[in-house]
Amino acid sequence: MTDRYAVVGNPIEHSKSPEIHAAFARETGQKITYEKILAPVEAFISTVDAFRGGGGLGVNVTLPFKIQAYQYAAHRTPRAVLAGAANTLRFEHTDGAVQVLADNTDGVGLVRDICINLGHALTDRRVLLLGAGGAAQSVMGAILDEKPASISISNRTASRAHDLAGRFRLIVPGVKVDVVENRQLIAHKYDVVINATAASLNESLPLIPAGAFARESFAYDMMYGRSATPFLLLAANAGAVTSDGLGMLVEQAAEAFFYWRGVRPTTAPVIATMRKQLVAANRAGAI
């Protein structure tokens, strides 16, 4: 029997996860199926229960269910605990019983894309993280592991930024974690700026002045699309090197695949293929 996996979310139609995992399976010779499952907002648990009860071995979890996925699991990896959210569930069927394990692969996906694929170091850099929601929370631990000089958090609601900073402030001794309110950003310069807000989903701009980008800085948007987001356009005009989050999407999927199958797929060909698809879609939309 072919092993079954899925991605669960709402909405879910836009998800590229099935084609990513299909490519991983072809490369590694793993026999799996992978589907999209739309879960009603109020029925995440029953939806996952049904998939698990049908013999499913694991699910990826996207918005808005990552916290529920964390709570659903009986066992959690340290990075899931640190994030307080899970984007990957694994179901281990043993002697008629099922054990649910949770992981969060977002942070490692972000860091691998920035540091390995794109060649931009985080170590000893002044990092600005825009946003203090679930996306920011999921990647803070992995960024701290790289030992930047500092991480500053800026969020429209300052109290949420202070909560996030307080949670992570003592995780890695020697790394300064602070909060910079929007109006104060003009007085600071950052080597790496990461947009973890949802602004790009609405084609809007997070609250950041162009002057916050240091000379030869690097700007990363965790979102991706057919064309550059307003955040990336602002950063490029300020002289920064820029990248969207397509590589993070593929890298976090590869880590989930490894968590399930014990085999680590190669990501570069998948990123290249998806990038070509985005470029082609952008050209077609311009015609």
List the helices and strands and how they pair.
Elements: E1 3-9, H1 17-28, E2 32-38, H2 44-53, E3 58-61, H3 66-72, E4 75-76, H4 78-83, E5 88-94, E6 97-103, H5 106-117, E7 126-130, H6 134-145, E8 150-154, H7 158-168, E9 176-179, E10 190-195, E11 213-221, H8 230-237, E12 241-243, H9 246-261, H10 268-286
Parallel strand pairs: 1-2, 1-3, 4-6, 7-8, 7-10, 8-9, 10-11, 11-12
Antiparallel strand pairs: 3-5, 5-6
Helix pairs in contact: 1-9, 5-6, 5-9
Summary, kept brief:
The protein has 287 residues and is of the alpha/beta class. It is built from ten helices and twelve strands.
How would you portray this structure in words?
The chain has 287 residues and is of the alpha/beta class. The protein is 39% helix and 23% strand. The strands form two sheets. Strands 2-1-3-5-6-4 form a six-stranded mixed β-sheet, sandwiched between helices. A six-stranded parallel β-sheet has the order 9-8-7-10-11-12, sandwiched between helices. Helix 5 crosses helix 6 (134-145) and helix 5 (106-117) crosses helix 9 (246-261). The radius of gyration is 19 Å and the shape is globular. The relative contact order is 0.13.
H/I helix tally: 10
Structural class by helix and strand composition: alpha/beta
Beta-strand content? 15-25%
Model regions low in confidence, pLDDT < 50 over at least 5 residues: none
- Proportion of helical residues: 25-40%
Arithmetic mean of pLDDT: 94
Radius of gyration over all CA atoms, rounded = 19 Å
Report the major sheet.
6 strands, mixed
Order of helices and strands: EHEHEHEHEEHEHEHEEEHEHH
Query: Which overall shape is indicated by the principal axes computed on the Cα atoms?
Result: globular
Whole-Å distance between the termini?
45 Å
The total of beta strands comes to: 12
What strand order characterises the main sheet?
A: 2-1-3-5-6-4
